[in-house]
Amino acid sequence: MKKFILILIGMTFLSQPIMAQFNEDPIINLENEDEPFLNWGYYLGFNQYDFKFDYKNDAKHILVDKSFGFNVGLIGEMRINEFLDVRFEPGLLYNTRTLGFPGFTEESDAIREVKSTYINFPLLLKVNTRRLGNWKPFLIGGASASMNLGSNEDSLDDNSTGTFRMKKMVYNYELGFGIDFYLEYFKFTPSIRGVFAITDELVPDNDPDSPWTSNLNGIRTRGLFINFTFE
């Protein structure tokens, strides 16, 4: 709830200058903002992660209790032309997912908390429309590699001792959209992006008949990012 209140307060302060950009005849801000070959910035935001499970047999599904995490990172942008930019957005992403495994009577066996700290390295193509006064919509997409510092991949412990293991390196594709708003002193960009892992992240338990992982062929992360960019 506190996070949502902070978002609302921030958006309230930004709403008046942003809405002013939709006037029929606005004063043009930062006319040459997109002209340099290289541009720099940073972003702050929120994320929500889920899992897609690939089961071997039809059985009761694993439940995922999702929560909101945070994103912070830098932006390097290379201009190709008026409509295309290449962006590199290295960042730190933190999130916690709680898994509920069916078939157990003890909570200590059924519940696994999965804390993930990703260092993300996305290389993206940004496709812009023409600038419309002081705003410009865009689509963005590309590929990313993420290093999960909380993966426990090298741990000798597994679910039998309460440790859920995942692979350290994850490869994804990302798709999203947003709007650039050219304010008086900087460019502000809210955007929404989906992140989809294309590689299996599961490290199976040591016991091939494990009640936690024996029915899983693999797991893949699905994520939603809401970012606020300042350039």
From TrEMBL:
Keyword set, alphabetical order: Signal
Domain Outer membrane protein beta-barrel span(s) in chain numbering: 36-201
Classification via InterPro entries: Beta-barrel_OMP_2 (IPR025665)
Pfam families attached to this UniProt entry: OMP_b-brl_2 (PF13568)
Leader sequence residues: 1-20
Protein name stated in the entry: Outer membrane beta-barrel protein
Species annotation: Maribacter luteus
